[in-house]
Amino acid sequence: MKIIRLYVTALLVIALVPAAAFAGKVVLPEETEVKVKFDPSIMVNSGMLQKGLNLPIILAEDITIGGKTIVEKGAEGAAKVIEIESASRPGDPGYIKIAFTGINARGEYSTATGDMIKLTGELESRGKSRKVLSWIFILGLFISGKEGEIDTSQVYTAEVAETVILQTG
Predict the structure, then answer these.
(1) For residues 117 and 161, what is the distance between their CA atoms, to the nearest angstrom?
(2) pLDDT in tens, 26-70
(3) What whole-number distance in Å separates Cα of residue 110 and Cα of residue 24?
(4) Within 13 Å of residue 53, how many CA atoms lie on the same side as its CB?
(5) Using an 8 Å Cβ cutoff, are 130 and 144 in contact?
(6) Whole-angstrom distance between the N-terminal and C-terminal Cα of the chain?
(7) CA distances from 24 to 50, 58, 71, 105, 108 (A)
(8) Helix or strand or coil: residue 51?
(9) pLDDT tens digit string along 83-115?
């Protein structure tokens, strides 16, 4: 009888250990859509920034899985200027391209290494050309095109770049 009880206890321990090892963990799948925004006090403009510059972003909506909040709204992250051209004469438009790079976990869950959750997604904007206007007027060589500008009051969609396991505390 003791052997049977010992055998049943051993089976229960073996069955429960893997479940306990994953308690408090959640998988955030690749390609999960996340809503982000820029700080509205900054200007994302091709005439003011330079290639390689990191820009702060903020998570605009909670990331939830199965109705549970995994990353809270307001989490801070980053985007990077990957291409940029200032507007120039005669009438050439500016251009800017931004790539979302990552978001920090905020709330009950965090990454095991403390790294950002990697994001993917890009935004780009080309300003208006004023080339025709510059050729109509004799002094048109002094007319620059409009700068490329990303509206910081809008919410944008990025995606999780790779599957990540988040854990509590």
Answers:
(1) 8
(2) 999 999 999 999 998 899 998 889 999 999 999 999 999 888 999
(3) 11
(4) 14
(5) yes
(6) 42
(7) 42, 25, 14, 15, 10
(8) coil
(9) 999 887 666 788 999 999 999 999 999 998 889
**Can you tell me the distance from the alpha carbon of 151 to that of 40, in angstroms, rounded to the nearest whole number?**
8
Q: Is residue 8 part of a domain?
A: no
Alpha-carbon gap, residue 77 to 60, rounded angstroms = 11
Judge contact between 125 and 96, C-beta under 8 A: yes
Q: Is residue 159 part of a domain?
A: yes
Within a domain: 5: no
Closest among 106, 108, 101, 118 to 164, alpha carbons compared: 118
Give the number of residues written for the chain: 169
Q: Which domain holds residue 64?
A: 24-168
CATH of the domain at 147: 2.40.128
Given a cut of 60, whether residue 3 has pLDDT beyond it is no
| 12 within domain boundaries | no
pLDDT level of residue 12 (50, 70, 90 thresholds): very low
Counting the structural domains of the chain, the total is 1
**Burial class for 120, CB neighbours closer than 10 Å (0-12, 13-18, 19+):** middle
pLDDT-derived band at 141 (thresholds 50, 70, 90) equals: low
For the entire predicted model, the pTM comes to: 0.76
